[in-house]
Amino acid sequence: MILLDGKKTAADIKEEIALEVANLKNQSKKTPHLAAIIVGDNGASITYVNAKVKACERVGFESTLIRLAEDISEKELLNEIERLNVDRNIDGFIVQLPLPKHIDEQKVLMAVDPEKDVDGFHPTNVGKMALNLPTFISATPFGILELLERYNVRTSGKHVVVLGRSHIVGSPMSILLSQKRTVGNATVTMCHSRTKNLKEITLQADIIIAAIGIPEFLKADMVKDGVTVIDVGITRLKDASKKNGFKLVGDVAFDEVSKKSEFITPVPGGVGPMTIAMLLKNTLLACERVNY
After folding, report:
1. Number of compact structural domains in the chain
2. CA torsion 106→112→115→121, rounded to 10°?
3. Which alpha helices (DSSP H) does the chain contain, by range?
4. Is the same domain home to 206 and 246?
5. Which residues contact 38 (CB under 8 A, 6 or more apart)?
6. What's the distance, CA 49 to chain centroid?
7. 35, 79, 248, 251: which one has the fewest Cβ atoms less than 10 Å from its Cβ?
8. Is 105 exposed, middle or buried (0-12, 13-18, 19+ CB in 10 A)?
9. 29 catalytic per annotation
10. CB 232 within 8 A of CB 245
């Protein structure tokens, strides 16, 4: 069993980005600048955004964090987005989700300039991704592709089963892995809550992408020997034996599934760190469009 170490791979990618940023600065070219909007006081969102700001500092990016009140109106938020759209100093920006219930998330995501949509959520970028055109691929799928490539996991001709059909992970992964690309050319089955005979399907899989949001859902009796497993899920469960009172688990019962796996991602330390690294990569790509 080989562990797909997202923490180490993300660190390698950040080092590569830092070298590229240093090169841009040496040539007196524009330094990449990532902005983030966060609305309200969601603890998990604040932690995640702060991690992104810290990552920007590490690679030499400029960063701007815009914190807005929970009760901000939708119109005021859209005005803030438009301000970033026209700010030539900002290469890319994200609006941290979830948003308060009185704000239409889809309307907000549609308002972001596709050229600055480094999250890759705008329909223009999703459409380009589906057509295999150059674009921003959303950070989590982008990170999964990078992990598979760097560990030389063969996907061509393989049967990939994707558990989950979210717009953020499941759906784009099913498209990307079926395309003609280095990490692609697979036969993909996408499963979801209405799928029948799920165990029969997962037992046929050479590669499983688990993004279903149910802790430790994928068990050893659902996978064949030599499978590759990418665990996208992360859930906080109470655990009195831990100092902080909880443990983090994925969608895969790691201890039992790893014994049958050729490659597997851990939780934490697998897909999660890759997401931030690829957000930085997208921001660098956005800046290069300006510099060149």
Report:
1. 2
2. -30
3. 6-26, 43-59, 74-86, 105-111, 123-130, 139-150, 170-178, 198-202, 254-257, 271-291
4. yes
5. 45, 46, 49, 65, 66, 67, 68, 96
6. 14
7. 79
8. middle
9. no
10. no
Please tell me the distance from the alpha carbon of residue 32 to that of residue 283, in angstroms, as a whole number: 7
Respond yes or no: is residue 87 known to be catalytic: no
Q: pTM for the full model? A: 0.94
- Active-site hit among 5, 91, 117, 119: 119
- In order along its 292 residues, the chain shows pLDDT tens digits of 999 999 999 999 999 999 999 999 999 999 999 999 999 988 888 888 889 999 999 999 999 999 999 999 999 999 999 999 999 999 999 999 999 999 999 999 999 999 999 999 999 999 999 999 999 999 999 999 999 999 999 999 999 999 999 999 999 999 999 999 999 999 999 999 899 999 999 999 999 999 999 999 999 999 999 999 999 999 888 887 777 888 889 999 999 999 999 999 999 999 999 999 999 999 999 998 876 5
**Active-site residue identified among 14, 52, 116, 281:** 52
Q: Exactly one of 5, 14, 91, 96 is catalytic; which is it? A: 96
CATH of the domain at 34: 3.40.50.10860
Domain assignment present for residue 194? The answer is yes
Counting Cα atoms < 13 Å in the Cβ hemisphere of 170 gives 17
Helices 43-59 and 6-26: crossing angle, nearest 10°? 50
Query: What is the span of the domain harbouring residue 195?
Result: 139-272
Work out whether strand 246-249 and strand 235-238 pair parallel, antiparallel, or are unpaired.
antiparallel
| Ramachandran region, residue 156 (left: φ > 0; alpha: ψ -120 to 50; beta: rest) | beta
**Domain at 268, CATH number:** 3.40.50.720
Q: Is 281 a catalytic residue?
A: no
